[in-house]
Amino acid sequence: MRYLIAFLGIFLVSCDKVKEIFQEEDLLKRPIAQRCGDCHQEIYQQWKNSRHALAWISPEFKRASENYSKERCLSCHAPYEINIGEKPKLREANLSDGVNCVSCHFKDATQSMHGPYDVFSPPHPSTKNLQYTKSEICSGCHQETYKQWKSANVEKNCQTCHMQPKNSKLIQKFPFDLFHTSKEVYYHGFVVPTTKPDFFRVQIIKDKDSTTLYITNLKVPHNVPTADHGSPKYYIDLQFFKHGSLVYSDGQTITKKEAFVPKQTTEIKFNTGFDYDKVVVKISRKLSWEDSPKKIGEFEF
Ligand code: HEC
Ligand code: HEC
Ligand code: HEC
Ligand code: HEC
Ligand code: HEC
Which of residues 162, 185, 208 is at a domain's end? Predict the structure, then answer.
């Protein structure tokens, strides 16, 4: 059976007619993501649960763009086509699909799907394009984060951390899945990894009337919080104790303006003209679209 399939495979590859027979014309007309999901089922399921899928219909975006009336806000949230280093143009159709498959993969210039591989894909033409394996592909929209990442000068790219790959197939549809071997498939949920306490170095220096907190971003190669738009936040909460009882608490909210820059140390001063023998520093984070903060870690001094 395996030989038969392999033989059939080789026969089909060598046959130009096959492209004509299998080509599905509507795929070249920028369909909604669900259509791509007919074959790319796994990737579609991942994308469907991503923030990119919600970029247009997100209630926060609807509010912040004043019900889609602020024109300059719209194009990155429902782009037509992406090109390196350029703010994309607004799409005309299927706006509620947000940042969808065709906005990242389909190019008018070649009338084909661009991606990292050299593939045989009868339903639609494909073009191998190594830009997809680099951070630059994210730069037209995540402009600020990209600049921060660039100056951090690290090897790991956006995809390494936000699209961690695993070995799988690009498609889950008969009969195509029989002819295609497994490859590295990058996770299309575009997740924000869990921030761990050891991503930061936290130090405290106590003076007569004040206490200074030093926080260093050791591991994230862009600012935290980082945002082009939206308002993610960090919260630093301090609790001062004497003989086990709480005597005072204070805190600071960190917006993208005061963000922790890679490898740099931020200094925050608190007035503490009182006596204490223990201080607990709690760090929490709220992503742009989240309602409430989640704790990252607690440090005791
Ligand atoms: C066409 C513009 C565009 C491109 C290209 C793009 N993004 Fe996004 N991205 C967005 C928008 C808009 C959002 C916000 C969606 C929302 O929450 O409303 C977003 C959200 C995200 C988030 C979620 C942030 C959070 O707070 O949960 C991550 C992670 C992300 N993008 C990673 C990437 C990576 C990695 C790339 C490159 C492979 C990329 N993006 C390319 C527009 C883009
Ligand atoms: C250059 C592309 C670009 C433009 C233009 C843009 N955004 Fe965004 N927006 C993004 C990206 C990328 C994110 C992902 C969040 C991040 O960077 O952490 C985002 C996230 C957001 C979020 C948080 C996610 C959510 O759904 O709650 C809001 C709100 C938002 N944008 C509103 C706006 C508004 C209002 C404007 C116009 C003033 C605007 N955006 C213009 C790229 C863009
Ligand atoms: C009828 C099935 C089918 C549909 C529908 C389909 N594709 Fe594909 N696609 C394929 C096959 C087959 C391959 C090659 C798979 C392989 O070699 O492992 C492929 C490969 C790809 C690649 C990889 C290209 C590269 O060079 O790395 C991308 C990107 C892609 N498709 C995007 C899309 C998008 C976007 C849509 C929706 C507009 C879509 N596909 C709809 C069958 C399909
Ligand atoms: C070494 C891994 C790593 C790399 C490389 C990386 N990130 Fe991140 N990114 C993270 C971590 C960890 C977080 C969560 C930080 C936090 O707690 O706010 C994050 C958060 C984000 C967020 C959510 C921002 C917020 O504050 O809500 C966006 C958007 C994002 N990254 C985009 C990018 C883009 C675009 C690139 C490439 C230019 C990139 N990241 C490169 C690890 C990485
Ligand atoms: C924000 C941009 C973006 C969106 C939206 C997006 N992709 Fe991708 N896709 C990428 C990038 C970047 C890669 C290459 C990752 C790498 O190799 O480093 C990729 C890779 C692929 C590949 C090749 C296999 C792999 O994972 O390397 C296929 C197939 C694909 N995408 C299909 C889809 C489909 C189908 C959708 C919609 C359900 C979609 N993509 C949505 C950016 C995107």
Answer: 185
> By alpha-carbon position, which residue is closest to atom 19 of ligand 1?
52
Domains in the chain: how many in total? 2
Pocket of ligand 4 contains residue 104 by CB under 6 Å: no
Whole-model pTM over 0.90: yes
**Mean pLDDT value across residues 77-93:** 95
Mean of the per-residue pLDDT values of the chain:
93
pLDDT at 179: 84
Question: What phi and psi, each to the nearest 5 degrees, are found at residue 109?
Answer: -55, -40
209 in the same domain as 136: no
- Summarize pLDDT for 44-62 with one digit per residue, the tens: 999 999 999 999 999 999 9
Q: What are phi and psi of 213, to 5 degrees?
A: -105, 135
The protein residue whose alpha carbon is closest to atom 6 in ligand 3 is 36
Q: Is 284 helix (H, G, I), strand (E, B) or coil?
A: strand
Task: Assess whether 159 and 207 both reside in one domain.
Answer: no
Domain of 53 in residue numbering reads as: 2-185
Ligand 4 contact via 189 beta carbon (within 6 Å): no
